[in-house]
Design goal:
heterodimer; A: Frizzled cysteine-rich domain; two-stranded antiparallel ribbon; two-stranded antiparallel sheet; B: alpha+beta; 3-stranded antiparallel sheet; 43% helix; transmembrane helix (chain A)
Chain lengths: 592, 359
């Protein structure tokens, strides 16, 4: 009912002035309707105006592109940043690839997207990505090749010149000019960035063992690849790092040699001065003298002559060898004397425990010295002979020495890590027991009067030295644990990935860990020298020189020196009747 | 017919506006009213049309497939139904109008509106800031409400339901806004991004409202208070009922009729003769079961028809740069709902069929 009334009202109202307005509205409505129809929002092809992308093979594009650029001016600002790369001709496909991404092709009769093929992207990336990485840029993620269709995909069409059935010349790149230079570059770069395939194979810098006559044939594998050897130098470290390694090892080994040589020489000219329980420090220093000598031999002979075999591209690290004399010599010096030094440290902690904890006198401890020497020299001998018999000596690609366990995890764990852990644990037990006893009997010692001050100081000095030894020893063990845990993955990465990817993912060994290991291996030898830093050393050398020159005429003074030395050993400063008394007192303690 | 119907509705809407004014002079109306309102008419018309097309797509494989009769929002014939499907029509139409107005606003088609720059330059998140041209949905919402709600001039519960569903459609456009970003940085890196809010595809809005259609709620009005008609009590009842419904949900008042059966008085054509999908790749479960839903459950059988189609195939790209396709003729099988024939003239045949049924 209401609507008929409205219609009636409408009819009445239109008569008069409003009639003109009504028809005017209708006219405007029709006009606007026409305008609306013409404004369609479909893809509109427009000529390419970006200067860099003119003449790439097609002339029309549409906006917005996949990067949400609204117009070609915006596209030009961004795509022009790649102009230096295009100019340098790192890849003949780069320009077409960039323009097909930024100014996508627009065809009137084909409305589906038509991106470049994945092969075009991969060719451009292979040629230009290494250059971008040199300047600190990575291949943009939003231009990753994985999102592009494959050539020949029927569902998603794509652009690549190889898909053309008829061979047509590409207008942007005439044949002679770009093909020469890019080929040369490709040849130069063919080895290192071999298009980053993830297939595992014996690729550079690994050394393939191809000849069956090669002594390592079917005997060596890297990253679980058979007949694949590691190169002479650690492939993860750069040339600068290798040079610094040589300097680093040279620095500490020379310092160690000088320090330990001084200590041993001082001991030799005045053997009576160093008695048990401190005497093992001297033997420990002697061991480090020979260890540093092993490193010095490597420095003089060179990395390649000690640790490597072969020539040119076929040069590789030594595996399971006993032949080369230099290699064996360096191995024996470093391994035998290194292990002996560890055992001497255990002996030191044991003798210190006897003296400080069990209140043994130096004479009683000295009575067992032949057993200490037997253990300290025999055990490393057996182990060294075992390593040589098992042909487990191999080259270290970092330090350039020969050792055990560089290429064999079993060798590393069995001959290096396990003994070090056992020695460290045993010595620490003795130290702990000794300190507990020391605190317990502290009051008893003090009751003896001022005579016990020197003894207590000596005990504390030896204990401090022995405890400080545990720091580098623990660090060496930690470095070895780190190395044996990650080495398989390092080797696998060498075989299964390319250098740029390894560098990006950081899947290599930590350079600092190795430098720390070599320093800690030698620092004990350096610090053992502080043991002889005292006025006594000067007196010993002065006496040695005086005794050497007038041998005949001073027999009585020698006797006097020995008497004085005894008094000094007894830890008393008084002469005359005091020495006799002290000697008398010590007899009962040794008896106990 | 559709544009004419909506066009007529719009014209009547504008005329009503003119008639409702009391102090308007012809000059004032021509200077302000026509320019301000006529500028949006084509967008409103195009938006409503896109809503209709989306409705047909969303209900292509339903028994009710958005027939023409449902699109006559205001008709002089018969009663306007307030079913679940009508609720969807109102929502998708309002969404279409708002969508088109907002998009045309961002495209610069209107002089008095532009991008939504309320957030320009502000920090949005880590590594990105607000910028660009955010779609001005508030403008589209305001103008769409002005035009679409003007079609409802009643004050009964039916009008209130329609207005509610109109608002739900507009809220669907806002709910589906998405953030789009553009990268800035040297050599294509994405060191910093500029982001803006952008309308989703209208298909996404249609799918969103289709879910709302499936979840629509039926209003249970107090029948006693409804008798009061257009009185104050009735309006109070309407207000009480609507306050309990979320603005984003669709509501309806009447149950849907049986869409299997033809009912020309209600503008329904039934499912006989409708096409359905039997098999094929990339079919959703709803599409795969369309034959059962449209034919078997409506007492009809599925009839196969072989149709030849011509299409482009084996497209290849030729360097550089053309795409050449072949023209292929394929025979495709399509399925339609057909009546089951029951011929009882031969007595023997009748017996035979009965026997089959027993077995």
């Amino acid at each position: 009912m209401r609507k008929p009334a409205d219609e009636h009202h409408f009819t009445m109202e239109t008569s008069g002035m409003h009639l003109v307005g009504f028809w005017l509205h209708v006219l405007l409505l029709f006009q606007l309707s026409g305008l609306g129809d013409s404004a369609s929002k479909d893809i509109v092809c427009e000529p390419i105006t970006v200067p860099m992308c003119k003449g790439i093979g097609y002339n029309h594009t549409y906006m917005p592109n996949q990067f949400n650029h609204d117009n070609q001016d915006e596209v030009g600002l961004e795509v022009h940043q790649f102009w230096p790369l295009v100019r340098i001709h790192c890849s003949p496909d780069l320009l077409f690839f960039l323009c097909s991404m930024y100014t996508p092709i627009c065809l009137q009769d084909y409305k589906k997207p038509l991106p470049p093929c994945r092969s075009v992207c991969e060719r451009a990336k292979r040629g230009c990505s290494p250059l971008m990485i040199q300047y600190g840029f990575e291949w943009p993620e939003r231009m990753s090749c994985e999102q592009l269709p494959m050539l020949g995909d029927t569902d998603r069409l794509c652009m690549d010149r190889n898909s053309s059935e008829t061979t047509t010349l590409s207008p942007p790149f005439p044949k002679p000019t770009p093909k020469g230079t890019p080929r040369h570059r490709a040849t130069a770069k063919s080895a290192p960035p071999q298009k980053c395939d993830r297939e595992c194979h014996c690729r550079g810098p690994l050394v393939p063992i191809k000849k069956e006559a090669h002594p390592l044939h079917n005997r060596v594998n890297t990253g679980s690849l058979p007949n694949c050897a590691l190169p002479c130098h650690q492939p993860y470290f750069s040339q600068d790092e290798r040079t610094f390694t040589t300097f680093w090892i040279g620095l500490w080994s020379v310092l160690c040699f000088v320090s330990t040589f001084t200590t041993v020489a001082t001991f030799l000219i005045d053997m009576e001065r160093f008695k048990y329980p401190e005497r093992p420090i001297i033997f420990l220093a002697a061991c480090y003298l020979f260890v540093s000598l092993g490193y010095i031999v490597r420095l003089l002979a060179g990395h390649e002559r000690v640790a490597c075999e072969g020539t040119g591209d076929q040069q590789h690290i030594l595996y399971d060898t006993t032949g080369p004399a230099l290699c064996t010599l360096v191995f024996l010096l470093i391994y035998f004397f290194g292990m002996a030094s560890s055992i001497w440290w255990v002996v030191l902690s044991f003798t210190w425990f006897l003296a400080a904890g069990m209140k043994w006198g130096n004479e009683a401890i000295a009575g067992y010295s032949q057993y200490f020497h037997l253990a300290a020299w025999l055990v490393p001998s057996v182990k060294s002979i075992a390593v040589l018999a098992l042909s487990s000596v191999d080259g270290d690609p970092v330090a350039g020495i020969c050792y055990v366990g560089n290429q064999s995890l079993e060798g590393l764990r069995g001959f290096v890590l396990a003994p070090l852990v056992v020695y460290l644990f045993t010595g620490s037990l003795f130290l702990l027991a000794g300190f507990v006893s020391l605190f317990r009997i502290r009051s008893v010692i003090k009751q003896g009067g001022t005579k016990t001050d020197k003894l207590e100081k000596l005990m504390i000095r030896i204990g401090l030295f022995t405890v400080l030894y545990t720091v580098p020893a623990t660090i060496v063990v930690a470095c070895l644990v780190y190395e044996q845990h990650y080495r398989p993955s390092w080797e696998r990465a060498l075989a299964c990935s390319c250098p740029s990817e390894r560098q990006r993912l950081g899947m290599g060994p930590d350079y600092a860990v190795f430098m720390l290991k070599y320093f800690m291996c030698l620092v004990v030898g350096i610090t053992s020298g502080v043991w002889i830093w005292s006025g006594k050393t000067l007196e010993s050398w002065r006496r040695f020189i005086a005794r050497y020159v007038p041998c005949r005429t001073r027999k009585p003074p020698v006797s006097a020196s020995s008497m004085y030395s005894e008094a000094s050993t007894a830890l008393t400063a008084r002469a005359g009747t005091a020495p006799t008394g002290t000697y008398h007192k010590s007899a009962p303690s040794s008896h106990v | 017919m559709n544009p004419c119907q909506i066009f007529a509705s719009l014209v009547m809407s504008i005329c009503c506006h003119i008639l409702s004014s009391t102090a308007w002079s012809v000059n004032n109306f021509l200077m302000t009213g026509p320019k301000a309102y006529l500028a949006y008419t084509s967008s409103v018309q195009a938006g409503a049309q896109s809503g209709i097309e989306e409705c047909k797509h969303q209900f292509a494989w339903d028994r009710w497939n958005c027939p023409e009769s449902a699109l006559q929002l205001s008709t002089h014939k018969g009663l306007r139904s307030a079913t679940r499907e009508t609720a969807f029509v109102h929502a998708i139409s309002a969404a279409g109008v708002m969508y088109t107005l907002t998009k045309n606003c961002s495209m610069g088609d209107f002089e008095n509106c532009g991008c939504d720059d309320s957030k320009i330059g502000k920090m949005g998140g880590r590594g990105w800031v607000w910028g660009g041209c955010s779609d001005n949905v508030n403008f589209g919402d305001r103008i769409a409400k002005l035009f679409v709600d003007a079609l409802e001039n009643g004050h009964d519960s039916r009008a209130a339901v329609n207005l509610h569903n109109n608002e739900a459609g507009r809220l669907a456009v806002k709910a589906t806004l998405k953030r789009t970003c553009k990268c800035h940085g040297l050599s294509g890196s994405c060191s910093i991004q500029t982001c803006w809010m952008q309308l989703a595809d209208f298909r996404d809005i249609g799918s969103y409202l289709k879910i709302k259609h499936d979840q629509a709620r039926k209003l249970e009005m107090d029948k006693i208070r409804m008798r009061a008609g257009n009185s104050a009590d009735n309006r109070g009842a309407i207000a009480d009922t609507f306050s309990a419904v979320a603005r984003t949900e669709l509501i309806f008042m009447e149950d849907s009729p049986d869409y299997c059966v033809k009912n020309l008085s209600m503008g329904l054509h039934g499912t006989e003769g409708r096409e359905c999908l039997q098999s094929g790749k990339n079919l959703s479960q709803w599409e795969r079961r369309s034959c059962r839903r449209l034919c078997h459950e409506c007492g009809l059988k599925v009839e196969e028809r072989r149709i030849e189609t011509v299409s482009s195939c084996n497209c290849k790209f030729h360097w550089c740069c053309t795409v050449k396709c072949e023209t292929c003729t394929q025979t495709v099988t399509r399925y339609f709902c057909a009546k089951r024939h029951r011929n009882r003239r031969p007595h023997n045949h009748s017996r035979k069929r009965q026997h089959t049924r027993r077995g």
